[in-house]
Specification:
The chain is mainly beta and 470 residues long. The chain contains 5 helices and 26 strands. The N terminus is likely disordered.
């Protein structure tokens, strides 16, 4: 089938604008790190002791990738090497790899990979107007895919039965954000903050395959059902189609999407969002905090849609075929008919411009609790619960950290988290003497990599930045 051929072009159009930026996911390892300059990205109520101005495009660069399956689950050692094959690696679909080994890396439910990349183009934080204020310009991009376990079973073809795959989702979004934040003390115990953000949309692409099912259990026929829809919102974007003939000349011709065209990137949409947060000091030792981030939307100016017909594909075998038309339907004719049915099921057709659409960002809920050791104040322990609320790409995480400030200008910590995908270990180092700030950290320590430098799992994280302080 040619499904993947068409989807490659659709997602390429969205990823073309993903040069930087991401959703409201910061360096969670630094949530309790005192005077980490960008704690306000995780809770707008959190303030810094120092004022700062970021070094353009270097103030904070944040990359996160999360998932419950990865490269090592799809690409495996070839059991036929070197006896009958010169290729060392193969896919999990190789018939010489057992079903148990091939599917061991996939979850029995939804299999997801989500990622975000953020570049702080420019940012400043300063004390004025009775509190702490932030101004920031960020480039943000997020992407994700949500695939059912049954899809991998079908790809491996574990038997002639019914594979009810449900929905398959793939998406990407890129935009620029201009934010204005303010936090202040209400009293000695309570501090609150809010951030207002203007959003300038670059592009959004959503591919959804609905109600996908492969019924291979029938004795008289096999059936594939489902419908694919691709929506792309991007200035100057359009699908390119080609005219092709059916195998059966009496059916004429059909039109299918075979490429995309982008007539120069630009502003594709506009929106607004809010971050809300609070911090409450219970006593000298205990502090709790909460924040709700990215409550907002982007209205896109256009929506180019391509969709499959939704017509099912039925295969009832090659019985009752003949060498010549005098004795029944010829083999070539029947094969051509199946080819035409598969074409109608699989190919995407340009549905034209659908007008504007409005999409949410996906909100993040952070809940924190920290304990400052009374016998050794430089040491603080913290627990952070983070929940990303974003439809099929939703995930949650709990992170326990130990944070140490041996010097007034040096602090950091180590932590461990359990999330919807895996168990992670993270760390952060924050150097902030007067005049300069450098920080680096990971929410997930990078594990083993392939010879090509590709992480074997789909979990990786790195945040680094430099700022001027006073």
């Amino acid at each position: 089938m040619k499904l993947s051929h068409h989807y490659k072009y659709i997602m390429a159009a969205a990823m073309a604008v993903c040069g930087g930026g991401a959703m409201a996911q910061g360096l969670n390892s630094a949530y309790f790190t005192k005077d980490y300059k960008f704690r306000h990205t995780m809770n707008p109520a959190l303030a810094n002791e120092q004022n700062y101005v970021s070094i353009p495009a270097l103030g904070s660069i944040n990359v996160n990738l999360r998932g419950n399956f990865g490269y090592q689950d799809v690409i495996m050692d070839n059991p036929m090497y070197p006896a009958t094959s010169d290729k060392k690696m193969t896919t999990f679909m190789n018939p010489y790899i057992s079903v148990a080994d091939a599917l061991d890396g996939f979850s029995s439910g939804r299999n997801r990979i989500v990622g975000d990349v953020s570049i702080m183009v420019l940012s400043a934080g300063f004390r004025a107007f009775g509190g702490y204020n932030t101004i920031e310009l960020n480039s943000r991009t997020s992407f994700g895919m949500s695939l059912p376990y049954e899809l991998f079973e079908f790809a491996k073809n574990t038997g002639n039965r019914t594979y009810d795959m449900g929905d398959i989702n793939v998406g990407a979004m890129s935009y620029v954000e201009l934010g204005f934040g303010h936090s202040r003390k209400i009293n000695e115990k309570l501090r609150v903050g809010a951030k207002f953000k203007l959003l300038f949309g670059a592009a959004r692409a959503d591919l959804k395959m609905e109600d996908m099912k492969a019924d291979l259990a029938g004795t008289d026929k096999w059936t594939l059902t489902g419908k694919a829809t691709a929506d792309v919102s991007m200035k100057g974007f359009k699908y390119e189609s080609e005219q092709k003939d059916y195998n059966d000349e009496s059916l004429g011709s059909y039109e299918q999407v075979n490429d995309v065209d982008i007539d120069g990137p630009g502003l594709g949409g506009f929106g607004i969002a809010f971050d809300l947060g609070g911090e409450y000091k219970i006593d000298e030792d205990w502090t709790v905090s909460a924040a709700l981030l990215d409550l907002g939307f982007i209205h896109w100016n256009n929506n180019a849609r391509a969709a499959s017909s939704g017509e099912p594909f039925e295969f009832d075998g090659f019985h009752d075929v003949a060498v010549s038309s005098d004795h029944g339907e010829e083999l070539d004719v029947k094969a051509d008919r199946y080819g035409d049915q598969l074409t109608d099921f699989a190919h995407l057709q340009d549905q034209g411009e659908q007008g504007g659409r409005t999409t949410g960002l996906g909100a993040t809920l952070n809940l924190g609790c920290s304990y400052n050791l009374p016998v050794y104040r430089p040491m603080t322990f913290g627990f952070l619960s983070s929940t990303r609320i974003n439809g099929p790409y939703t995930w949650t995480e709990g992170r326990l950290s130990a944070n140490w400030e041996p010097l007034g200008w040096l602090n950091g910590g180590v932590n461990m988290s359990v999330n919807s995908f895996t168990t992670s270990f993270g760390w952060v180092l924050n150097i902030h003497p007067k005049g300069f700030n450098f920080f680096v950290g990971m929410d997930h320590i990078l594990g083993k990599q392939s010879k090509e430098g590709i992480p074997l799992s789909s979990n990786a994280s790195l945040t680094v930045g430099m700022n001027v302080t006073w």
